[in-house]
Amino acid sequence: MEISRYTAGRGRKSSLPDYVGLHKDIKKFAACAGAYTFDDKNGKEGFDMERAGEYYSVSEIFGENVFNDAVMQERLPKKVYQKMKQTISEGRELDLATADVVAHEMKEWAIEKGATHYTHWFQPMTGVTAEKHDSFITAPMENGKVLMSFSGKELIKGEPDASSFPSGGLRATFEARGYTAWDCTSPAFVRQDAAGATLCIPTAFCSYTGEALDQKTPLLRSMEAVNKQAIRLLRLFDNQTSKKVTASVGPEQEYFIVDREKYLKRKDLIFTGRTLFGAMPPKGQEMDDHYFGAIRERIAAYMRDVNKELWKLGVSAKTQHNEVAPAQHELAPIYATANVAVDHNQLVMETLKKIAGRHGLQCLLHEKPFAGVNGSGKHNNWSITTDDGINLLDPGVTPHQNVQFLLVLTCILKAVDIHADLLRESAADVGNDHRLGANEAPPAIISVYLGEQLQDVLTQLISTGSATHSLKGSKLETGVTTLPDFMKDATDRNRTSPFAFTGNKFEFRMVGSQDSIAQPNVVLNTIVAEAFSEACDVLEKAKEEDNFEMAVHNLIKEYATEHQRVVFNGNGYSDEWVEEAEKRGLPNIKSMVDAIPALNTEKSVKLFEKFGVFTKAELDSRVEIEYETYAKEINIEARAMIDIAGKQIIPAVIKYTTALATSLSAVAAACGDADISVQKELLVEVSDLLSDTKKALAALQDVTEQGASMEEGRAQAVFYRDTVKSAMDALRAPVDKLEMLVDKDMWPMPSYGDLIFEV
């Protein structure tokens, strides 16, 4: 056999007739490439030859499947390239003639990468992406040949069926027309998978009458809003050079990885993404030995392929590590503009799931796949920066002297305080109800962590009207002579805060792991735009009256004083904070159902309509969709429990009790003096729990049927939350006890221990 390898340090290939004599060298090389394999069962070694020759440079492959600026500059005529740059940077409309040229070059580039189809890749209100594939071929010519064609019109606009996606009443079933419109600020890309190669064009999705039916459209609107108001603010501080302010986002993605064979034996995971039954294993996460621990080889090989795929798509996957819970991990990218970050996060979730299958694994993105084990979130790191590199959230060395920063900071405090309910709603989904408020995730109460340094500045402003100093970081002395001393930050971090300032950004830590980050960023952008707008209204008038310095000083103090209640630097997990928050008048919204009404309050409608982000009709539609989504997801979970309990668990327990009874009779017959009390007690205990299970199952069936027959809306969602979920908990309780009693060989599904420790 021939093996091709790179000669160490030279980058040259050499051909080796056999690997026997060079076993160690090849083994070392192949292991580095993830190509060395060892079959424990058979004791056989092997090499994946395709991967053994796969050394690659990240800088060379990064973005190779993206129609990015470098590709456009290379392939587009100079004038067309300049028009595209203006369209992207200045938000100009793309004319059809320019679009035709761009479409042609994009098609040629995509075909070179093996693409046969293109798709408008969009994000409807289902939580996942959607796409309809069209090939590049035209109608056959007289000679039977076809041409490959892609026009500017096809690039700019698509027409998927709008009636088949959630619209909340914006579109009737018979009103099918909808439009997808190219978001040229998010680059097109070629996705390569088992289906071949497809040119994906990120788009917005709206109805025939112009209402937003997706996550992207309101996000782009909110980005325009915060840009406009931030520029107003900068001009007040005599900044005439910055032309654009952009919301930048870096989402940290948490997820679980389990063995796919075991996954396929769990119908609850297949149908709902989480385990509906399951007893805790002897060991969970209490030893804290998984967090930042050594990554297992099987997972490392998976992460390697995930990274490579994401890098080729231009996603800046940077950090990977084990999370707190067994089998839980995290991937974090570098910051990108908000709309690109949203697109990239969708790609991250898709890629995590797709690559897992290739490794015989399954990726679980649900917020709480295992009860009693830490769930998964998605920390949304948000900042606002100018086109010339100014971060509006950078306090500088002396934040007490940075008036612009203090104004931005207090505006954000005001925004978060006034719209805490809206911000909480933006992180609401069904899975997140299992996390928020528990000792693993931020509480359901919105508060802001500033840290000691900024808290001290704020206290000075409130108590004296001015800030005269800032706390400094001190030298951290390790006490070990061989370790360097270094300057520590003036402020610690707080992982219990839902909205924490972390140096030059805010970390919104409530977002669910499987949820889109679009909605949280829509809300953040819009509420901050409102705060900036109101501040600018005051300060622009003051500047006209030559009273700007005093006015900005007074406004900072006013905002700091009026909204200090939302600032909390302590333990957000404590019961004391819940009591304190209530005293401060902060909302504690514990469930998605209670969070939804915040979307279309008079306050919210006024906010979103003022900045053109949502109309009232669009907000009402989203309220309807979210109530419907909640009810449907709980209904699916309830029906899955009914199916599993009735078809798998009860028959398995009956089988076990029958075997136990048979054994008991056999022992008694064989030896009348034998003590069979243990068997009897076990048989009674299991039989009692089986009876409880059957009763709970019948009760769940009844309430599930009742819920399904109700009219869609808030009343139905409340019924599913209060009545159906309670019945689900009542069914789970005896089943989880039975799992600890029934013979493992007879239990019909893998246990928690099997799933999270055997990967």
Structural commentary:
The protein folds into four domains: 3-55, no CATH class; 69-214, Glutamine synthetase, N-terminal domain (Ubiquitin-like (UB roll)), CATH 3.10.20.70; 223-614, Creatine Kinase, Chain A, domain 2, CATH 3.30.590; 627-757, Four Helix Bundle (Hemerythrin (Met), subunit A) (Up-down Bundle), CATH 1.20.120. 46% of the residues lie in helices and 14% in strands. It has 24 helices and 21 strands. The strands form five sheets. Strands 11, 12, 13, 14, 15, 16, 17, 20 and 21 form a nine-stranded mixed beta sheet that branches. Helix 11 crosses helix 12 and helix 13 runs parallel beside helix 17 (548-562). The radius of gyration is 29 Å and the shape is globular. Mean pLDDT is 85; it is low at 1-33, 474-478 and 485-490.
Please state the average pLDDT score.
Answer: 85
Name the structural class: alpha+beta
In total, how many domains does the architecture comprise?
Answer: 4
Q: Roughly what fraction of the amino acids lie in strands?
A: 5-15%
CATH overall fold name of the largest domain: Creatine Kinase, Chain A, domain 2
Measured on Cα atoms, how large is the radius of gyration?
Answer: 29 Å
Describe the largest sheet.
Answer: 9 strands, mixed
Separation, N- and C-terminal Cα atoms: 33 Å
* Overall strand count: 21
CATH architecture of the largest domain: 2-Layer Sandwich
CATH class of the largest domain: Alpha Beta
Categorize the overall geometry. globular
**CATH superfamily placement of the largest domain:** Glutamine synthetase/guanido kinase, catalytic domain
Annotation field: number of helices = 24
